[in-house]
Description:
Layout: E1 3-4, E2 7-8, E3 10-15, H1 16-20, H2 24-32, H3 34-46, E4 55-60, E5 66-70, E6 73-77, H4 84-95, E7 100-104, H5 108-116, E8 120-122, H6 124-148, H7 152-155, H8 158-169
Parallel strand pairs: 3-4, 3-7, 4-6, 7-8
Antiparallel strand pairs: 1-2, 5-6
Helix pairs in contact: 2-3
Amino acid sequence: MVVLNGVKVPLLIVDGYNIIGTWDELKSLKRSDMGSARDQLVAVLAAFCPWTWKRIIVVFDGQEFAWDHVDGVEVVFTESRETADTMIERLAAGLTASYTVEVATSDFAEYRAASSVGAVVLSATTLRQRLNEHRERYRRHLGSTQKKGLMLNNILAGSVLDALERIRRS
Length: 170
């Protein structure tokens, strides 16, 4: 089990082509260049790894199996005989014991399959809202940090500061 501070680590599995086909900006981009739409989706998600999810896996239907890491995001292309939905279901089933698994898809059949193995399912719209909320929270955090100044005593926990002070005095 992957645990951080007594809690299972969050993991996001994304139904890549489903999200591309749902988000307006990616839907229009895919009409001219599907590769750019895939790259844009991965780039958007990479901005939230590892702060929101410790691990993000984006799954696409493919012709030849590939599993790559792009800016901290795991990008998977299935073999021609396996659909992205099947891969997502296997990943969710295999990882729910170790992680808090969230699956992003607006495919109802995929929703039912992922939730039946214990994953939390986010629609494409909910994923977009979550990303926007996290982006806004991060911007507010940056604004407050800039007002205070980027000093260790502004960002470290009190217990850490106390330990450092004890070391300094010894």
